[in-house]
Every structure is written in C-alpha cells, then in structure tokens.
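Re: Re: ligand-bound prediction request (bumping)

Still looking for help on this. To restate: I need the protein modeled with glutathione bound, output as structure tokens. Inputs repeated here so nobody has to scroll up.
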Amino acid sequence: MSYDLILGDRAYSSWSLRGWLLFEAFAIAVKTRYVQFHDASVAEQLTAHAPAQTVPTLVTPEGAVIGDSLAIAEELATRHPDAGIWPSNPLARATARSLAAEMHSGFGALRNDCPMNLRCAYSSYAAPDAVQADTFRIDTIWNHALNRFGGPWLCGGYSAADAFYAPVAARIAGYGLAMSGAAQAYVDRHLADPAFRRWRAMAIVEGPDLARYARGHDQTDWSGPPPRLAQAVRSGPSENATALIPASLSPISWKRTGGSSVSATPSAATKPWPTPMPGRNS
Ligand SMILES: N[C@@H](CCC(=O)N[C@@H](CS)C(=O)NCC(=O)O)C(=O)O
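Reply:
Sorry for the wait, this slipped through. Here it is.
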C-alpha cells in the first residue's frame, strides 16, 4: 500500500502543485494520478474517492481521503517527522505554519485576478489596488521571515511554507508583479528550484491550453531559467509508474528524456482533448 495522490492539470492547478511539492520536495514516495480539467468536472472525476471534490486529494495507505492541501501537509508531517516538512526549530516552525495558513486562507484578489498559468508570462498586466495590497502583504511577510531566519527559504531550509508559496511566486513572475529585492530573489529561487522546474516542464507539454485561464495581456518570456527540455510523445517506454486518468482509465505516463529533461507520454489510447469544462479557478 502506498500514498495515492490525485492531481489536476499541471499548468493551471496551483493547489495540485502544492500537494505534489509536499511529496517531491521531501522525498516521500507517492503514486500520482491526474484528473483533467478539460474533461468532466473535477468532482465527477473524483467520485471513486468520496467525499473528495477538489485536487489535490490524497488517499492514505489506510484509505483515508484528504481533500485539502494544508491537511495533507499536517498529516505528512505527523507521519514523517524526520522529513523536514515543518522546521524543527520551534520559532521557525510556528512561523512556517503561520505563513502557510495565511496563504491557504488569503490573497483572494491575487488568486482571482491572476490564475496560475505556467505556460506564459505577461508584460502588460496592470495590477488593481486589491492585487497590489495582496502583493504588498506577501512582500511584507516574506521579508519578515527571510530577515528573521536568514533564508535561503522562508524559514531557513525548504519547508511546507515554501511549497505553499511556490504557485504565488509563479503568479508574481508570470504577471510581472513588482516586489522588493529580497522578495524578488525569493521568487527567482522558486523558479530555479529543480522540483518546480520538473513540474513546469511537464505542465508545458501535457494537456491542452484551457481558454478560461488565458488572459488578454501582452506576453513576454518566462523570467526564470528556461524549462528543462521536454517533449510530448505518443509512445515509448516510461521511466516511472503508469498513472490512470480516472474518467477514461486511459494510461498516461511520464518519461524523462536526455538526462534531466522530462516528457509527458500520453499513450496512443488516450482520447483527444475535448472541450474544457467550467470549474473553479486554481
Ligand atoms: N482548499 C483546497 C483547495 C483545492 C482546490 O480548490 N482545487 C481546485 C483546483 S486548483 C479544484 O479542484 N477545483 C475544482 C474544480 O475546478 O471543479 C486545498 O487546499 O487543497
């Protein structure tokens, strides 16, 4: 028995990125499955995992269904006390929990106006006051933590707090939001993080572009390091376990090619991408 983690479209699902990082960044083994945002609704694709309705959803080895990223972080921290999900230092740990919780419950203007889209970056986005207020607050709490614990991550070493802010960093970069020097350096650290780059490489090649996440702003180059080379291929061996798309039971597997590069490998049996379904923002 192993952990079974159900995720959404890598390009758009910010909560899925958080859930995935909670395993990937802390070297906790997990089997991943994907729902497809363009397919049936997320809730319909999760009917086998009641009462889950959103991604990420974690099914524990005992069969408990955890449908919330913060609960996933806390459960993993309890089960894997040496993984470093929260800092061991009490002051840093309390701060990391506070930072993650504020992200989990806040920054609604930023989340609504700037949906995560790892496939593009914008140069002409003009942030309304409410978004500027969110980024000012984010800048403030990041600087507070970075100054107090000395970096390089928010509370010293990489912790769940950083996993929670990785998609925020992607939004700040993708929409060209102005930050102070230390906060921008923290954004850049996320963009260069190997785990983030692996996720983004697969986000670029897997699944269709979804119109509901597109914005009409002028586009520019992604500001982080270039994505690891990736290529969508229709056949070929996979390096890791085959996952199942719940709605279709079509196999889809992920394949690394050429050293550190990553390819998404939908099987030949995978059905063509249908029309996007309406759903909530990431
Ligand atoms: N509170 C949840 C939020 C999860 C969430 O809203 N996920 C989105 C995708 S990023 C979702 O599944 N939305 C359902 C839909 O689009 O129908 C968490 O922390 O994980």
